[in-house]
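Troubleshooting entry. Yesterday's outputs looked truncated, so today I'm pasting the complete records for two proteins to confirm everything comes through intact. If either block looks cut off, that's the bug. Protein one:
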Amino acid sequence: MKPLLGLVLALAAAGAAAAGPTLVFDAQVTWRAADPRFGGFSGIEVLDGGNALVAISDRGAWARAEMLREDGRLVDLRMTGIGPLHGIGGEALAPPNADAEGLALAADGSFYVSFEAFHRIRRYPDIAGPAEDVPSHPDFRRLQSNSGLEALAIDAAGAIHAIPERSGAWERPFPVYRLTGDTWDTDFSLRRDGTYLVTGADFGPDQRLYLLERDFRWLGGFAMRVRSFRAGPDGFDDEQTLLETGFGPLDNMEGISVWRDPDGRTRVTLIADDNFIVLQRTVVAEYLLSEG
């Protein structure tokens, strides 16, 4: 083999090996509804094999929607219900205790929601019904007011993982608070990389942790990134960057749901928080996982 040809083939093989898994764009829709409670969505779970979703708002509301598809591809969303999140006593939540940020679906069909300001996690057997208490960690009281428990995910064993938006320093990993039964631990963390902040997380069908992160520039808008990590007994490793956008193409992406469609493909569905600002949109974007 000629030296130059050998070098070209070697570089091509190395590039193919380095490519690895990626998220491939599949669909994007803008979800609209006239209800004044609609907007500010910071958490999402896809249900019924991709035919429905539940989302939560940082103003203390939940919403349900039918996901309309053609040949598996998302083409529209139709809201089927909306209402307030409730407290343990059954009262509708109001500011400053209504800032819902993270949403996770348990194996029994109940939802877990994490909140900022009054940093806490609550369990909802019915997303429209009263909340149930979840034990707290002492650190929660010391989290920044607007940078609390942004991401929530539940693994196959039922352990709850809560991740704050900020780690407290650029070089400090994001702490992962893990609740097993009634006991919290902080044995695990996730490497912090660049100026991205955590906005959402979910365990996929492969039981990897998928982390949604966001960056922002006043003159550029929003950028986002999705990384995934292998979960093991000693923590999270095998970090993979699956998607990283430039500033501007999407919006303020805050919620992530990772699920398997009827054709066996892993899909990642993201939702944007429009901050109830007319210049922003409730974008729902969907990607397919390619193994590369």
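Protein two, checking that the full record survives here as well:
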Amino acid sequence: MTRKIITDRQILKGHTEIHPALDFYNGKAIVAVGRPGLTTYEDKSNTCEQYSICITSDGDFFILSIKEILDRKLYYLKDLDLPSERWEIEDQEQFLEQLRNGNKTKFDFKKTHQEIRELFVELFDFQDEKLYDFFSCFIIYTYFFPLFESAPVVHLWGPAGSGKTKIMEMLGLMAFNPVTSGNITEASVFRLVEGRRAVCLLDESEDLSKTERGHAITNLILNGYRRGNLIYRMDKVGKVIQSSHYDVYSPKVIANITGLDKEALLSRAIRVTTNSSRNAAKANKYTVEIKDKADAIRNKLYRACLTRFEDVRHAMNTMPRIGLVGRSAEIWQGVLSIAWLVNDKAWHNLSWLAIENSKSLERELLVSNPIWDLFSALLYMVDNIKPKFYSNNQIWNCINKHAEGEFISKQQVTGLLKQQGIPQRIKWIDKKTTRGFVLNKEQLESKLSVLADFITPQKSHLKNSQSLHLLTDEGQK
């Protein structure tokens, strides 16, 4: 192999970094697609290759190359690996002609949402009607996700035969540049997710905590939920082991039966519980039967990301807040922004789904919260009337009896009590110094109340538009 000789190096000035696969920059949008092309060499020989073709929101169209990108005062540092035939060539050319002729036909969020929703209604028998709106808005959102700081992990959880794989197939048909981890190595997943800005579909993910591959995929999920997070790996290139880093920010979808056993995963998740269909006609209908309709919808979604990105950005900044805070607000922001642009019904349904889902997961996280377990166990020991000194040994014996296996050492327990603002005391007992804590029932119940308030669900009877209004900023005022 001939080694290339460097003849010059320059520092770029005034160039904007982009990811050509899908990005929004300087008031523009860009998307790259794979297209077949013919390459001719100086000896007149030809070869067929796939090129990366870039299309921008102002009608620019070019074969992706370093020169073409630099000429536009842009640069990129990613190795693209784009799927072909995601956006039909005929529709690309028609779209570009319309742009150049000044005919900017606007994408209709409401109409396309309804078309996607009808396909899900045709194939699925969801017990919760809100899920039809959720998956429809989620698919649209995947074409705009780089606008947002965080991307959700959608967890499909249900028994065998409850439609998880079928949902994955639907997402594979219509979501942006999907990658499935089923038959490829974890190293390939990292490269593909980065190179395509891919929506990552992880079906039958039962081994997330049991195998080396599972740990790698978990790392992909945990680091890929926030924009700018990088994963660092040691990869073998030929005979050399070298350090590599990957930007794997994108929406992820996990399907399994066992659930998520890591708190960090749960805190990033939107859970969808799947159930077996009660409708035999829907259960026996295959996704291949709606492929043509899905292809047409996908064409519209490519047009959407190039023409409606400013509307999505505006919705993100102006839609009402519904009481979600922290990470829950982050991971729901994208889907809710799309629902806000669709119609009142979709917005109402997804707002309630977001509230119910977030509170449910928060309660589940609390079940394994060590502070909750600690204070709950200590209630068996403390005096009901007045504060009393309890030695570290007394506390440890109580924990072992009422929270068996939850804590690994006396030091862990005393450390948690200190972290919660309960100071350690020293007393002279039986002619020796004894360390412990002054506790009483009211004090512990107060600590538990604070934790419980954090996860108290919204009042279940608030089921109409007026009650939902009370949860927004305007209603709170």
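Both blocks look complete. Sanity check on protein two: Confidence is low (pLDDT under 50) at residues 454-477.
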